[in-house]
Design a protein that fits this description.
Strand content: 35-45%
Structural class: mainly beta
Radius of gyration: 13 Å
Order of helices and strands: EEEEEH
Oligomer: single chain
Largest sheet: 5 strands, antiparallel
Distance between the termini: 24 Å
Number of domains: 1
Helix content: 10-25%
Strand order of the largest sheet: 4-3-2-1-5
Length: about 80
């Protein structure tokens, strides 16, 4: 199964980010957002600059996203 990841290059204030990381993308209120901080991006949602790519496995380098994913994986469903 493939998933979409995003690298936010600059915020809404057009300030370039140092060492941007790849975050998992989630849909939130109909728009695309980062999984870790629910930071919106895309046409009509934000004026930030970003890169998006679709990967089959891995690719996420954001520590916050990885922590949340690990926490979800620890949940055992009966």
């Amino acid at each position: 199964m493939s998933h979409k990841i995003v690298k936010i290059l600059s915020g809404d204030d057009y300030e370039t980010r140092e060492n941007p990381v790849w975050c998992l993308v989630q849909s939130s209120c109909g728009d695309s957002a980062t999984f870790c901080d629910t930071e919106y991006f895309g046409f009509g949602a934000s004026s930030c600059k970003y890169e998006v790519k679709i990967v089959e496995v891995g690719g996420i380098t954001c520590e916050k996203c990885l922590e949340k994913i690990k926490a979800i994986k620890e949940i055992k469903l009966v």
